[in-house]
Amino acid sequence: MPSKDALSVYLASLEKRTYYDILRIRPDADAAAVKRAFHEFSLLYHPDRYVDSPSDVTATASEIYKRGVEAYRCLSRKPLRERYDRAMGRGKLRIEPARPSTVPPPLVQRTLAEIARTPRGKQFAVKADRLITAGKLGDARVQLVSALQCEPDNAELSERLQILYEALALEPP
Amino acid sequence: MAVAVGIDLGTTNTVVGFVRDGVAATIADPGGFRLIPSVVSFHPSGQTLVGRPALDRRLVDAASTIYSVKRLIGRPWGSPEVQAARGKLPFELREGQGAATQVVVRGEPYSLPEISAFVLRQAKAVAEASIGQPVERAVITVPANFNDLQRAATKIAGKLAGLDVLRILNEPTAAALAYGPQGKEQERIAVFDLGGGTFDITVLDLAGNVFEVLATAGDTALGGDDIDVVLAERMADDLLKKHRFDARAQPMAFGRLRILAEAMKRELSSVDQHTVSADDIVPGDRGKAVPWTFRMTRPELEWASLGIVERTFKVCQQALDAASLKASDLDRVILVGGATRMPMVGRKVEQFFGSPPVVRINPDEVVALGACIQAALLDRTKQKTAEAMQHPRIHERSVVAEMLTEEELEVSEAPVLPVVSSAKMPAAPMAPAPVINVAEAPSLPGQFLPSAGTKELVFDVPSESSSAPFEIQLQASPAEPSRPKLTVPGVPPPPIRPRQPTMQYPYEASEAPAPVAAKAERPAPAPAPAAPPPPPRPAPLLIDVTPHSLGVETVGGFCDRLIDANTPVPCDRTRSFATATDNQTSVQVRISQGESKRFDENTCLGELELAGIAPGPRGATQIAVTFEIDADGILNVKAKNVTTGQETVARIQLVGAQDGPAAMAAMAARQAAHPLAPLG
Predict the structure, then answer these.
(1) Cβ contact (<8 Å) for B576 and A166?
(2) CA A114: distance to chain centroid?
(3) Which residues of A touch B584 (CB under 8 A)?
(4) Which portions of chain A are predicted below pLDDT 50?
(5) Rounded mean pLDDT of chain B?
(6) Contact assignment for B570 to A73 by CB distance below 8 Å
């Protein structure tokens, strides 16, 4: 079993490794080789192999293992692996880095009722909120359009209407 | 020294197992029973009955006798499962704080983990009585398809029972561990687990000592109980037709029918037709009972349950699709769970997978055996001797070594009380009593004798002097503290496939070791010392997966998927969140599990709150949240403020969970206030 220090150093080094390096395989390794490599990796770093170690050692192993899982998930699925190979060509090491620069649009949102300012607008916004919660996006759009007519200068509300249009376009038939 | 056990906390029965000297075995209570019915009854005397005695109270005191909790545990009040169960169960359910589901007994509310804790305490007590040492740690199994809420609630139940839960283990994975590899270097297997209340299918790769789960799928509301209900409905129809009596309108009468239906279903696994009779269901004139009998054949049962069995194969296909496999790619299919005893299930499984399924270990015990193997491997305090680093073997008694022939079946046919089959055994697992009053005999659902209550049955029990080729092995009496190490190392049960396509083996083999008896009848195999012991296998490593995709709610009611279903655990994924308004100090994100793109079509786990954010302009603060699914399949969250680099407080309020310190303390106090009735 590797020591705690060895594990910590190895964990830190993972930041600079490709998925292939993490699993210790060649970039042209076939599916069976990827699987074999993941099993080898699991025998080395799965936290269950460290039950007799102090909990911080187990935790470090667990962090390493989770990176191995990430690599395995990516390399064992053909479309993901192809995407990763292309990204690697552009110098990327992780298929979706945890870098905050790539954050998706803010997920946190106020309710429409909070955004609306006029009493009439709020009434429509409340209905729109309820319809969105119920999954009836089309009906919600109607309410939100009405709310916006009450307060046409509410930029945040109109932004939310745009999002709703986008969502409707995404909505599966 | 405190020890670790494995507990299969089932919908209908709970089984506890323990590894001693490299041999995994299930543990019997002082009465010789290895299945503890998962039933809790609050007796008017203040005693809390668990298991067999509680089962008997189901007909007498239905409102205070709680069963089938596993179908509801971890399900919030508003969930369809709880709402559907409300009218059907004879005990009272109500909504607690935070959408929690509670049961009310004699005016006092209990959370569902509390009820399961009583069952776990009983399992703990049974284990302690047999092992002679305190049990402090346990691996507890759950259906592979359980979501985060259900797993977390089960873990709470374990804590309330005074157990350090080493692992929440998936039942099919446990079964695979109990079976172990079959000698081949590489193997691909499926575990078909049809229990009382849930169905799971898990596909695994076995390579050396690595057990990698490729995919799992299941239905937490599909099991043998559903077949009982279908049969009970048939019986109710019959009552209506013959006696103009509507059993559906009376929960007690319908409950009675369900028990008769279960007995009928079990009978028809070994015989072609069966008649049940009862004279206390239909009330007649002046209190005179009206006798009623109901006859059914196996084809009729199979026709009635076809729809339920067929549903399992839709789920099987899902799992195969997720693993990108075909049914014919599998080397072996293992049957687990009591409901797989129906011959039709074995037949249909063979049709679907193209090869006869394997039943080498008693399907009622196999999960507990796997759980205790994992417990032995994960037990920190255990000295890791060379033996402890090996894959434990399964106690002979739990091995269904060979499919029985028709004649043998007749002998071991149900309703089997342990003593009946001891007619073929040199040493019964329990002290044989020559006269058994059936009414007093422990009543397992399958042993329910509708009309035998008044008769005294007398069995001839042979003396202990009968020839006994396997005597020492059969003497591995449950109550014996110093069980000898498995004494027949030379004859490991071969990987036997059933001789006939129809799966026929006696049920309750755990109580009545009929297969062993049958085995003892064969020409005695070579004496033990002659054959070399099987080569030890290295300690196995389980790589399990998360059964559901994890996601967060995003704009427009959509679900942003963070972790895909069937990803190995532990795993994690980091996602950044930004404040949406000026001077926002907290951020709320809803979390769900499920495969739908729409958030509300998935199971909402609860809300994540990121608090203590320094006020600032909108979007200026970004918080990186790491969602981790641990080896128990339970979600943990860590958050870091990207802007300042500091840890951020992240709290998850799970829907319907009462896991705050105050609630935990109150529940622990209630456990302490309810002593369990003594064993035996």
Answers:
(1) no
(2) 28
(3) 108
(4) 97-107, 171-173
(5) 79
(6) no
Q: How far is CA B421 from CA B300, B410, B411, B456, B460, in A?
A: 29, 11, 8, 17, 11
Architecture of domain B224-305: Alpha-Beta Complex (3.90)
Structural domains of chain A, with CATH: 4-101 (1.10.287.110), 112-170 (no CATH)
| CATH 3.90.640.10 residue spans of chain B | 224-305
* Beta carbons within 10 angstroms of residue A43's beta carbon: 15
- pTM given for the model: 0.77
Predicted confidence (pLDDT) at residue B420 exceeds the cutoff of 90: no
Burial B318-340 (b: 16+ CB within 10 A, else e): bbbebbebebeebebbbbbbbbb
Give residue B333's pLDDT band: very low, low, confident or very high (50, 70, 90): very high
- Among residues 95-114 of chain A, which lie with CB inside 8 Å of chain B? 98, 100, 103-110
A79 in contact with B at a CB cutoff of 8 Å? no
What number is the ipTM of this complex? Answer: 0.78
Percent of chain A as helix, strand, coil, to the nearest 5 = 70, 0, 30
The answer to whether the Cβ–Cβ distance between A167 and B556 falls below 8 Å is yes
Instruction: For residue range B602-615, list pLDDT tens digits in order.
Output: 999 999 888 888 88
Q: What percent of chain B lies above the pLDDT cut of 70?
A: 78
Reported as a pLDDT band with limits 50, 70 and 90, residue B389 is low
Mean pLDDT of B215-219: 93
Q: Is A54 on the interface with B (CB under 8 A)?
A: no
CB contact (8 A) between residue B584 and residue A108: yes
Residue B150 distance to chain A (closest CA, Å): 23
Residues A107, B567: C-beta atoms closer than 8 Å = no
pLDDT above 90 coverage of chain B, percent: 47
> How many Cβ pairs within 8 Å bridge chains A and B?
114
Protein fold of B550-630+634-663: Substrate Binding Domain Of DNAk; Chain A, domain 1 (2.60.34)
CB contact under 8 A, B558 and A170: yes
> Which of A52, A70, A135 has the CB atom closest to B384's CB atom?
A52
**Quick check: A133 contacting B, CB < 8 Å?**
yes
Q: What angle do CA B33, B37, B41 make, to 5 degrees?
A: 125
Residues forming CATH 2.60.34.10 domain(s) in chain B = 550-630+634-663
**Interchain contact A172–B (C-beta under 8 A):** yes
Radius of gyration of chain A (CA): 24
Q: Which residues in chain B are contacts of A47 at CB distance < 8 A?
A: 570, 631
Fold of the CATH domain B3-221+313-394: Nucleotidyltransferase; domain 5 (3.30.420)
Distance CA B667, CA B312 (A): 37
User: What pLDDT, in 10s, does the model give residues B143-164?
Assistant: 999 999 999 999 999 999 999 9
- The answer, yes or no, to whether residue B466 has pLDDT greater than 60, is no
